[in-house]
């Protein structure tokens, strides 16, 4: 399964998610950001590639819908409601990500 994690700048939340979930068998994981200054900026290629897209906040879902509206039908887009309060690989962020993502993906944590 191809999983894309999206946040604003692709520096803390989505990059942490990519790092922790890329080790799971059966998951091909990437991450991107919605802002101009993102480390890796989301493209139509990312959206087309992904089976499931996890956005950290509602604004990320909105930005994707504005930019890639024609590509999103049929895609599973899930908002995790994780605020921009965490640094890269923050222990609390890792626990939240594992808990919320495991509700949607069949993985053994």
TrEMBL record:
It comes from Paenibacillus solisilvae. This is Low molecular weight protein tyrosine phosphatase family protein. Residues 1-107 form the Phosphotyrosine protein phosphatase I domain. It comes from the Bacteria.
């Amino acid at each position: 399964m191809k999983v894309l994690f999206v946040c604003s700048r692709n520096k803390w939340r989505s990059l942490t998610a990519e790092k922790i979930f890329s080790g799971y068998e059966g998951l091909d994981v990437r991450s991107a950001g919605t802002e101009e200054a993102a480390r890796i900026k989301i493209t139509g290629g990312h959206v087309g590639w992904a089976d499931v897209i996890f956005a950290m906040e509602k604004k990320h879902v909105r930005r994707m819908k504005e930019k890639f509206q024609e590509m999103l039908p049929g895609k599973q887009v899930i908002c995790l409601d994780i605020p921009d309060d965490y640094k890269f690989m923050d222990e609390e962020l890792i626990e939240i990500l594992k808990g919320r993502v495991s509700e949607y993906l069949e993985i053994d944590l």
